[in-house]
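User: Predict structure, ligand glutamic acid.
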Amino acid sequence: MTLLTFRFAPSPNGELHLGHAYSALLNQKLAKANDGRLLLRIEDIDTTRCTPQFEAGVLADLEWLGLDWEEPVRRQSGHFAEYGTVLDRLMSEELVYPAFMSRGEIRAFITDSEKRGRDWPRDPDGVPLYPPADKALPVRERKRRIAENAPFAWRLDVGAALARVGRDLAWAEFTDEALSATRAVAARPQDWGDVIVARRDIPTSYHLAVVMDDALQGVSHVVRGQDLFSATSVQRLLQELLGLPQPTYFHHRLILGPDGRKLSKSLGDTGLAKLRDAGASPDDIRRMVGL
Ligand code: GLU
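Assistant: Predicted complex:
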């Protein structure tokens, strides 16, 4: 039997809270129960929001919790060249295009379209889909704007990508925390429209880096929060386009704050460092998250 591989993949753009603790400890528990591997991946492609201080805090919190991961830890910021190679491939296959519209321009386009009585579609996070204009720009015009240093992002042409794949996609989702059974979930990448796969200055995005790294690191089981359930659709499409293996997924329950809302990284009473300073032990944290 091949070794099962789990991972916890925090972004060091803030301090860890109870939700992260649950995710990390659940991955650890499942890796142990299955004699599998546990990897830690630092998802720090956003070089403005991720800082060495936050990363040091993340590592200290995880050590304190008793998480034990394999070394070396993969830091995404050290692998931009690898992501760039794959981005080049998507460019040469004409599956991505440079998207120049600013947030303000997108807003104006949508307001205008809604004024004419058309409800503009939104993605599962409620963000309006990217308007189609840039996809139709002639190559000469794209080159001119890039040469003029216009800001842009590389977006996936989801229509072209789906046509390339040529069939419906699905993924296997575990039905419970013990990973006892799976069900098939139909992927709906079109619900996200033309997602960003890379920035002008950073040759990747969350989606691209995550699918490449899960494949490179041999991750067989992606166990992460329910908030990323819908994002899996985009990731399945990228895996298929890039010929990458598909892991099995479990999107676990979220730990909610006293107000019933998802926890945020802005420090509240649920920050791990704060709880530790207030005298909580790692066992207390386990109890608080129901493990
Ligand atoms: N880095 C992401 C986060 O902190 C998690 C990515 C994933 O587990 O796929 O939200």
